[in-house]
Amino acid sequence: xxxxxYDAHCHLQDPRFxxxxxxxxxxxxDRGIQRLVVNGTRESDWDRVAELAERYPxxxxxxxxxxxWWSRERSANWREDLEARLLANPRASIGExxxxxxxxxxxxxxxxxxxxxxxxxxxxxxxxxSLHCLRAWGHLDAVLRAxxxxxxxxxxxxxxxxxxxxRPLADLGAYFSFAxxxxxxxxxxxxxxxxxxxxxxxxxxxxAPDQVLPPELDEFSLIDPDTxxxxxxxxNLPVIYRHxxxxxxxxxEANFRSFFA
Length: 261
Fold this sequence. Notes:
Distance between the termini: 23 Å
CATH superfamily: Metal-dependent hydrolases
Strand order of the largest sheet: 1-2-3-4-5-6-7-8
Order of helices and strands: EHEHEHEHEHEHEHEHH
Radius of gyration: 17 Å
Shape: globular
Number of domains: 1
Largest sheet: 8 strands, parallel
């Protein structure tokens, strides 16, 4: 039986992919990738996410959110626009959003306000919610414990938090997605944390075009023409599955379908 793969988080709308999306998706299909969740990060890319989902409905699940790096750019009516997009497409998810104290000049109070708006909408509509967190795990844990969450749970995309928080967050309904960047030798602590993730809460993501794999595992040669830096290709997803031994494809598929159904 052909192995089926599911990408829980990527950014195919990213302009760094240029006009190669059709070619990229063909490569994904050739490798057995069944679904890709494409996450918006700011209002200006939501139309592109919607366009891709409409053009490739059998492959792409859209998700709309305000990433903390861009949330200060939001318009006055962003919440209404977000809800309208969700109501127009029952398959749409929410995110990426979250908390980030690694960025330059973070505003934790403003980030929490934006996060709570996403969380309220996810709980009310019971939609999947993809969360970003860097150096703010205690803050995120406090927010999640203090407010209602969607019944289906939440996704901690590219989980990089402490190992000791895995079980408490799982008890709050969290799923955890493993990114290919964690296969780099320097990411031993993150791999150790994922050893503690319950098997029914594990998902796999590419986060393409970011979070590149170690060069020796990268099966593609995508380069950003503006910077000369390597880009991640979502077709690398099977490589991540193969090199992360706890990732049983059938179990991950069941988890994906349970969370994103």
